[in-house]
Design brief:
single chain; Pseudouridine synthase; Archaeosine Trna-guanine Transglycosylase, Chain: A, domain 4; five-stranded mixed β-sheet; 3 domains; alpha+beta; ten-stranded mixed β-sheet
Amino acid sequence: MTVFGFLNIDKPLGMTSHDVVAKVRRGLKIKKVGHAGTLDPLATGVLVVCVGAATRLSEYVMHTTKRYRAQIHLGVTTETYDAEGEVIRHVDASHVTRADFEAALAQFQGEIEQLPPMYSAIKQGGRKLYELARAGETVERPARPVTIHALDVVDWSPPQVTVDVVCSSGTYIRSLAYDVGEALGVGAHLSGLVRTASGSFDLARAVGLETLLNSDNPHQYLITPDEALHPMPVVDMDAEAVEALVHGRVVPSAGAAAGTLAQAYSPDGVFIAIVEAEGHAWRPRKVFV
């Protein structure tokens, strides 16, 4: 049986994303398994896992809008910007009001340049930043453009503040917590994080890792490409077009805008390829049969 699809897993606290992938690989006895967007060990929530040939589609589910519920602890700064790191500064933050906090938060909404934390997997000079950080090195790292679509305070219980975040892929919520703390002059770190959605995958429909692994039929939790890749349009192809796509040839399109990506399906509903509109044709980008 060829296994092909996506899993929406509620990542447990304390596990790395790689740990989850390894457990799925062993539990489902499938070699090709990967994830589409890392979650730190202290984070829980939606981890999209690609199974089988769906690993070739990871780029289409990875670069999507993310939603988080973040807990920010005011007055305590750590070297990693989260609760795992060594505390490097304590400041009395009792004077910070909710209005102060929301004003600081508003500075980071929209398109911003964000400096990633030293403790991150971003590579610089061929080495991951966290490797350099553990060796006691701090290096200049370029700020990266990210978009923060929405920031809403949902619980004000200082020094703990809970914020709902809607943001682009690549946003570091740890950096956001740190930056807000610096803007307030009291410091802060990320004390808890739940990813509540990643693209079309949301926490309400996620499966627990142990539930998946203990299931008599774990394949029931696989999500098909048409659902996982939503809202990417679906194009139904006739048999002749399928034959052309399989052999790498273009097929006529109905005037889709240039650059439009779509999912191509055969007459019997089988996922065939990712295609891209060029002129008046669909060009195959990734073929799966």
